[in-house]
């Protein structure tokens, strides 16, 4: 047969040629051998199709890199996890090549110059091959006969991503740290300023974050092997897909971790200076941020660069001080602020004659977090302090606080604008060129015109207001606006609005609440505060702080009254009252259905997240209970009294011990006397979740002198993984989503763990209620463990139970003894 004239043979030959040009190369789809290479759009893929290695271009950049990313078939969002030529990009991927050369994996650019290499020696270069493994490790080995010994591996040279199975540690012999290094920005994988490394101190088992390899701005805290967490990252306790190990020997110390199942998870050193734990969620097809540290971007050292100012309440977080502009505008557009800011006009210091006799001046910047590295100088007044800085051409700024003068030379780092009521804010004076200030002579005519016009406007406005006020039948003459829209009410006006406080809506440890109607027909709830002893200035400052807090799940503060010992807070009125009235006291068909209860639980959690994590100052509520959850006309929950912990101040501990109606919501740490954190609110919230399920109080007094304690019964059923429908409010008749019921019961158990570090944060609570994060099986809290073996209703025996029969007493002696002490402590 003449194969040259056979059309089938020609077709087979063409097919063979096409297959030989397939983008997956080498003798294996995951391997680059000595006879093969990568170029253009060619890639190799790990054996199970998890990772891909090839050329890529980040964002709108014109540069190309050899890098590794998750296979888009599994993670449709391009996620680069390792880059070879971070510092030496190429411009033409089609004429560049990655291949084995002299026993190394080498990247040659379009001019055939080596721009990256594994830089190892091999005696049998013809058998060397590079393999992309399913754990994200690229290994260089001598042939396929030895699968465990590597000439080189990418795990020894991490980029910004930490994979399971990869070491991040410290070599004690070479004194070299194996660290994660951030990208410069989201379009430039060049090494950035931020890195994560093991603290090089001998025997240290904590990680540190470094800026420019010189400033340590965050530490993880020591490793707790028993708890499997770093002391300053308690969020790790809730992620059960990880298993961390710490190794410390004479040669090295390092951490390594593994993950359960086939979960795709990674840690990254982000270009914004935060270390982040990311998990891939198949449902929404996106990366889920489980935690990040530091929690706030402004806590990252020099986040906004020199002369840049960070502000958590603005977007973007960084801007330039007055008289400055971004040094690299393009980088700022990529959220890379490291270049900082530069002066719009250079200072005239040392040569003021060049500016027509106009001297440099100082701009006052109030409520600032002062820059790093101040220099203290002797000065008896603020004027002397300013003169000292003015006469020093290297001085950029000064501050005078508590009769101490501080000056800063050169560039200013770590500037932060605080809120207007931040107690830690300092006044700061920065040196600017004279041209940055308006000339009084040039503006004299403008000022005169503005003054004359303002006087005429005020006179006209006064006449209009006079006529209007004369025609009003009712008015609140002494009420005025302060701190924005917050109103300062006169006591007698609130007396009139509430009909001398005649319609009481409820009460608690901080005072009673009364319904009222303002002259403009707005319905209000006025709370008369008790045991509030602050001075006038402190009270107004703290009230203005609360007044600036706005969230859909927080009751809005309209205003306040402060006249001597008469102090009141005025809120929006909630027509559906408090949660306890809807949950415990509704007998007819108007009781809350399951969907409404679940939404109330979720909304309440979101309100607490705002207080704990989103406010300038973390606000701990300290009194979470159904009475303090109010419901609007649509049953949207509003957390009330969320500022009282801050308002009460130093006296709060005393006030709390005399509080009524909160037994059963107090976290154990209140009773042990340790410092209180946001986890105290989490505990109270967890106790309240049990009441969402049962529709009754956790504590119920019985006629025989016992107290039924629902959480113990519920924890028992949850631990047994039994039918949770028996825990439901009987009024619901079983009408509840089974998955939601299981989720909320398990979450309640997690929230009431005895050790506060075992409890989730409120942010994690929201994620669990939303179904974003799974809720694992919780342990029974130790304080409840003694009752686990009891049947059905668990009994707290009180003093009145002493008349019970000796048989009953003998059967429950252990429980009775423990319960008496617990009840006594709680009551106190």
Automatic annotation (TrEMBL):
Where does the signal sequence lie?
1-28
Q: Which UniProt keywords apply?
A: ATP-binding, Disulfide bond, Glycoprotein, Kinase, Membrane, Nucleotide-binding, Serine/threonine-protein kinase, Signal, Transferase, Transmembrane, Transmembrane helix
Q: Which InterPro entries match?
A: Bulb-type_lectin_dom, Bulb-type_lectin_dom_sf, Kinase-like_dom_sf, Pan_app, Prot_kinase_dom, Protein_kinase_ATP_BS, S_locus_glycoprot_dom, Ser/Thr_kinase_AS
Tell me where in this chain the Apple domain is found: 349-433
Pfam families tied to this protein: B_lectin, PAN_2, Pkinase, S_locus_glycop
- State any GO CC term: membrane
User: Biological process GO terms, please?
Assistant: recognition of pollen
Compositionally biased intervals (Low complexity): 800-828
Q: Where in the cell is it found?
A: Membrane
SUPFAM superfamilies of this UniProt entry? alpha-D-mannose-specific plant lectins, Hairpin loop containing domain-like, Protein kinase-like (PK-like)
Q: Which PANTHER family match?
A: OS07G0415500 PROTEIN, RECEPTOR-LIKE SERINE_THREONINE-PROTEIN KINASE
What's this protein's name? Answer: Receptor-like serine/threonine-protein kinase
Source organism (scientific name): Dipteronia dyeriana
């Amino acid at each position: 047969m003449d194969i040259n004239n056979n059309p089938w043979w020609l077709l087979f030959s063409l097919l063979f040629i096409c297959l030989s040009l397939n983008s997956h190369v080498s003798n294996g789809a995951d391997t680059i051998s000595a006879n093969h290479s990568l170029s253009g759009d060619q890639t190799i893929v790990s054996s199970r199709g998890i990772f891909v290695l090839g050329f890529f271009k980040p964002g709108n950049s014109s540069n190309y890199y050899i890098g590794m990313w998750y296979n888009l078939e599994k993670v449709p969002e391009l996620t680069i996890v390792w880059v070879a030529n971070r510092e030496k990009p190429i411009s033409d991927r089609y004429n560049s090549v990655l291949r084995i050369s002299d026993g190394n994996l080498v990247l040659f650019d379009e001019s055939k110059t080596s721009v990256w290499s594994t830089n190892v020696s091999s005696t049998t270069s013809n058998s060397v091959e590079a393999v992309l493994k399913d754990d994200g490790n690229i290994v260089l080995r001598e042939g396929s006969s030895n699968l465990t010994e590597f000439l080189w591996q990418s795990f020894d040279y991490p980029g910004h991503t930490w994979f399971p199975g990869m070491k991040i540690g410290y070599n004690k012999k070479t004194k070299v740290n194996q660290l994660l290094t951030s990208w410069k920005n989201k379009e430039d994988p060049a090494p950035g300023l931020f890195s994560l490394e093991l603290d090089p101190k001998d025997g240290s088992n904590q990680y540190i974050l470094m800026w420019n390899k010189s400033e340590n701005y965050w530490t993880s805290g020591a490793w707790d092997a028993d708890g499997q967490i770093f002391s300053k990252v308690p969020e790790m306790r809730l992620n059960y897909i990880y298993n961390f190990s710490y190794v410390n020997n004479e040669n090295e110390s390092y951490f390594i971790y593994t993950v359960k199942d086939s979960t795709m998870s990674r840690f990254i050193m982000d270009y914004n200076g935060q270390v982040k734990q990311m998990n891939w969620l198949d449902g929404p097809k996106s990366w889920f941020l489980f935690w990040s540290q530091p929690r706030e971007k402004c806590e990252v050292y020099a986040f906004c660069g020199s002369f840049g100012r960070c502000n958590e309440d603005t977007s973007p977080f960084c801007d330039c001080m007055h008289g400055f502009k971004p040094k690299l505008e393009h980088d700022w557009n990529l959220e890379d602020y490291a270049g900082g800011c530069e002066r719009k006009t250079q200072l005239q210091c040392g040569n003021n004659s060049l500016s027509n006799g106009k001297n440099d001046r100082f701009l006052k910047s109030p409520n600032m977090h002062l820059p790093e590295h101040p220099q203290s100088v002797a000065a008896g007044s603020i004027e002397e302090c300013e003169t000292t800085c003015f006469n020093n051409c290297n001085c950029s700024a000064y501050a005078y606080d508590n009769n101490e003068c501080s000056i800063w030379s050169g560039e200013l780092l770590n500037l932060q604008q605080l809120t207007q009521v931040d107690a830690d804010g300092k006044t700061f004076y920065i040196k600017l060129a004279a041209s940055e200030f308006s000339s009084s002579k040039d503006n004299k005519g403008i000022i005169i015109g503005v003054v004359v016009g303002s006087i005429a406007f005020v006179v006209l406005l006064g006449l209009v207001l006079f006529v209007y006020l004369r025609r009003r039948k009712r008015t609140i003459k002494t009420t005025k606006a302060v701190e924005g829209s917050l109103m300062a009410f006169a006591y007698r006006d609130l007396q009139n609005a509430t009909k001398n406080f005649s319609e009481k809506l409820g009460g608690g440890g901080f005072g009673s609440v009364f319904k009222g109607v303002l002259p403009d027909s707005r319905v209000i709830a006025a709370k008369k505060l008790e045991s509030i002893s602050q001075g006038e200035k402190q009270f107004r400052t703290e009230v203005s702080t609360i007044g600036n807090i706005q969230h859909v799940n927080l009751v809005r503060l309209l205003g306040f009254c402060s006249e001597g010992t008469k102090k009141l807070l005025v809120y929006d009125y909630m027509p559906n009252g408090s949660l306890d009235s809807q949950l415990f006291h509704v007998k007819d068909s108007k009781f809350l259905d399951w969907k409404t209860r679940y939404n109330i639980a979720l909304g309440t959690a979101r309100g607490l997240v705002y207080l704990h994590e989103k406010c300038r100052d973390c606000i701990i509520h300290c009194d979470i209970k159904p009475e303090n959850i109010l419901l609007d006309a649509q049953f949207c929950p509003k957390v009330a009294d969320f500022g009282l912990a801050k308002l009460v101040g130093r006296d709060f501990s005393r006030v709390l011990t005399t509080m009524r109606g909160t037994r059963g919501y107090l976290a154990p740490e209140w009773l042990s006397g340790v410092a209180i954190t946001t986890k105290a609110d989490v505990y109270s919230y967890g106790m309240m979740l049990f009441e969402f399920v049962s529709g009754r109080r956790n504590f119920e007094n019985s006629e025989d002198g016992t107290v039924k304690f629902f959480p113990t019964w519920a924890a028992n059923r949850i631990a047994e993984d039994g039918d949770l429908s028996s825990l439901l409010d009987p009024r619901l008749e079983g009408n509840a989503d089974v998955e939601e019921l299981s989720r909320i019961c398990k979450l309640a158990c997690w929230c009431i763990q005895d050790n506060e570090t075992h409890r989730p944060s409120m942010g994690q609570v929201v994620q669990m209620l939303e179904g974003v994060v799974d809720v694992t099986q919780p342990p029974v809290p130790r304080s409840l463990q003694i009752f686990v073996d009891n049947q059905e209703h668990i009994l707290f025996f009180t003093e009145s139970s002493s008349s019970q029969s000796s048989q009953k007493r003998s059967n429950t002696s252990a429980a009775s003894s423990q319960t008496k002490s617990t009840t006594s402590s709680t009551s106190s």
